[in-house]
Amino acid sequence: MDKINRLYYYTYLSVSANGDIIDCVHISKQPAFDHPLLKNHTIQLLQCPYRTITQALNCAPSLVTFQMRPSYHPGGLYDGSNISTHPITQIWHQKGKCPENTIPIRRTKEEDVLRASSIKRYGKKRPRSGIPTVASIIDDPDARATIGHQHAAASASGDKYYGTKATINLWQPTLESTSDFSLAQLWIIGGSYQGNDLNTIEAGWHVFPELYQDSNTRLFIYWTRTAYDHTGCYNLICQGFIQTNNQIAIGGSISPVSLYSGSQYDIDFLIWKDPKDGNWWLQVGSDLLGYWPSAIFTYLADSASNVQWGGEVFSPDASQTSTQMGSGHFPEEGFSKASYIKNIQVIDSSNNLKYPNGVTLLAERPSCHNVQNGASSDWGTYIFFGGPGKGPNCP
Q1: Which of 111, 117, 157, 219 has the fewest CB atoms within 10 Å distance of its CB?
Q2: What is the domain count for the chain?
Q3: CA distance 347 to 171
Q4: What does the pLDDT look like over 43-84, one tens digit per residue?
């Protein structure tokens, strides 16, 4: 039996029009373990039920080293919002959930790969692209390493960072072309483009027809250790991220999304470096999804030097695109009209969450897509961002 067929232990078909196939893959057979640095990386699965940490540690002697959960969560979690939260669902849940000791993986189809410029580039960002321009990261800003990409984001630097937490507003922006994409995300960054040693961990939502063949809002992750050249990919398309959750499909569509002047929906993202094992864990809402092993990084094997939060649009067209960022409206329109990221925090060396210091704002073309920041007792540190792209003031 070939390698791909061995992966699919159970299958659920999405009942939605997007045609996603979600395969429930045994946790030990996921793509991450094909990474050459993870050949000896094992997950110890529980063989007896437990309700507390003490019961888990007494369950079997080997459980002290199992990788199904982090050793520690960050302290000082803050969410002062007085706006009620809404459950986030994925369409494939209508057919059920994956069994214990499996993970849901969105199946890659032949037509998905054929849409890419090459098989080798499928699921990868272009080399030297993907983050807002920061002088310490882009060694030559005049080289326009991020050409085709426009950002509206906030950035914190000047310290060692061990993670971040933020609540990201969900939208479904309209794209000018199926070759464009639009997203809202957070970036955890170390290194620089110089020497192609940029390390990033990224998570958020995006609308990306070229990758998924639809315009749904989808949960995504990304990583690289070589400035998007050779290493890293979206979701679980290549080796790297180890998923431990059997409820959430990374790359799956998420709903509901916000409406202009209507109901607003958002979701918490938390990424932190486990002080004991050094792995970078991801939690989305209340779901612990898994981790990026420290071994796949260079700079991020220790800590990050920069953290960013915001939006991005991309178009391969040399001219300005009308692809929307966020809601497609500028930040000055405020709540229920502009896209936001609130409760922005960073994690320090003591594994505690705190407000970021010295936040700077980044927008390559503020007349097309812009960002504003603020602070309040309800939202902590926050930004509004977005814009319509090409228009009367954005030729």
Answers
A1: 111
A2: 1
A3: 27
A4: 544 444 433 333 433 433 333 234 688 989 999 866 555 444
